[in-house]
C-alpha cells in the first residue's frame, strides 16, 4: 500500500512539475516581488533603518525576504488546485485506481520544488547585492530544513484555501495576509522600535521566531529558544492544516 501511494504521488508530482516547467513565468513572478522589496529596502530605505546589529542590512533582512518569497509562491498552489477541481480533473482521478492522498501530495511537493527554485533565485540576487555568510554547511542545511518545513506548512494552508474557494480570486487571496505578516515582525526592524501593542504582537507571532532562527544560523550565533518556538509553531500549524485539508478533501470527493 505504501509503495502504491509513493508511486502514485511520484507520477502526479511529475505531471504538476511539467506544468510548472511549461510556464516558468510562475517562478519568475514569485521571485520578482521579494527581489523588488530587497532593492527598495536596501538601496532606498536601508540607510535610514537602524537595526542595532553589527551586520549589513541585506544580511539582516534576507530571512524575512525568504519567507515572503514562500508566502507569495504558495498562492499558485491553491490556484492550481482550484483549477483542477473546476476542470473535473479530481473526478477523473477518483475513477482511476490511485491513492486519494497522492493527488494532494503531488500539489504540495510541486509547491516545495517551485518555491525552492524561487528561493535560490532570491539568494542569488542577494549575493549580488552584498549578502555574505560564513555559516558552515550544517547551518545551511538547517536553514533549508526550516524553509522546507515553512513551505510545507503554508502549502497545506493553501490546499485548504484551494479546496474551499468559490472563485479563482478567492483561491489566492488568502496569501495576502501571510505576505504582510513578516512586516509586523523582526524581519525588517527590531521589534523594540515598534509601539508597545505592535511590538507585543510582533514578538509573539511565529514569523519573528523563524526569522530570528534563520538570521542566527546565517551569522553563526546562538539560536536560543527561538528555534524551539519556531518549530513548535510550524509543526503545530502543519498538523492542524494537514488534518483539515484531508477532511475537506474527503468531503469534496464523496
UniProtKB/TrEMBL annotation:
The lineage of its organism: Bacteria, Bacillati, Actinomycetota, Actinomycetes, Micrococcales. It is a multi-pass membrane protein. The chain crosses the membrane at residues 27-49, 61-82, 103-131, 137-161, 173-191, 227-249. PROSITE patterns: ABC_TM2. Belongs to the ABC-2 integral membrane protein family. It comes from the Bacteria. This is Transport permease protein. Keywords: Antibiotic resistance, Cell membrane, Membrane, Transmembrane, Transmembrane helix, Transport. It is found in: Cell membrane; Membrane. InterPro entries: ABC2_TM (IPR013525), ABC2_TM_bact-type (IPR047817), ABC_2_transport (IPR000412), Nod_factor_ABC_transporter (IPR051784). Residues 25-252 form the ABC transmembrane type-2 domain. It comes from Paramicrobacterium chengjingii. Its main location: membrane.
